[in-house]
Amino acid sequence: MAAIVLPEDVSVKKVKALHAELLNAVDNDENEMVIDFSAVKRADLAVYQVLLACARECREKKKVVKIKGASSTVKEQMKFCGILRSN
């Protein structure tokens, strides 16, 4: 399982590094990816755009994306944007 731990501030200034980390995780042989939001206090729209692209690519590759440590509000926003799917 690939695990990505997000920092406290995930803003447009850090999105390039996050994108690279997500691409590495998508391209590995693991069939599951966990994105840990436990430390996140600030995330902007650029982060959601990168996560959405990652989630779409994971679905194409039959990988599961799990979110850890995110508030219920953040999870609902991710569902609304299509990053997470309701089962």
Question: In a few lines, what is going on in this structure?
Answer:
The protein has 87 residues and is of the alpha/beta class. The protein has one domain: STAS domain (Transcription Regulator spoIIAA, 2-Layer Sandwich).
What does this structure look like?
This protein is 45% helix and 21% strand. The protein contains three helices and five strands; from the N terminus they run E-E-H-E-E-H-E-H. The protein has helices at residues 15-27, 45-60, 72-81; strands at residues 2-5, 9-10, 32-36, 42-43, 64-68. The protein has a three-stranded parallel beta sheet with strand order 1-3-5, covered by helices on one side. It has a two-stranded parallel ribbon with strand order 2-4.
Features:
87 residues; alpha/beta; Transcription Regulator spoIIAA; two-stranded parallel ribbon; 3 helices; 5 strands; 45% helix
- Looking at the overall shape, the CATH architecture is 2-Layer Sandwich
Overall mean pLDDT stands at: 88
CATH C-level label: Alpha Beta
Question: Total number of β-strand segments?
Answer: 5
Residues in helix, %: 40-55%
Task: Indicate the low-confidence ranges by residue numbers.
Answer: none
Q: State the helix count.
A: 3
Structural class: alpha/beta
Please state how the strands of the largest beta sheet are arranged side by side. 1-3-5
Instruction: Give the SSE string.
Output: EEHEEHEH
Shape: globular
Strand content: 15-25%
| Named CATH topology | Transcription Regulator spoIIAA
Radius of gyration: 12 Å
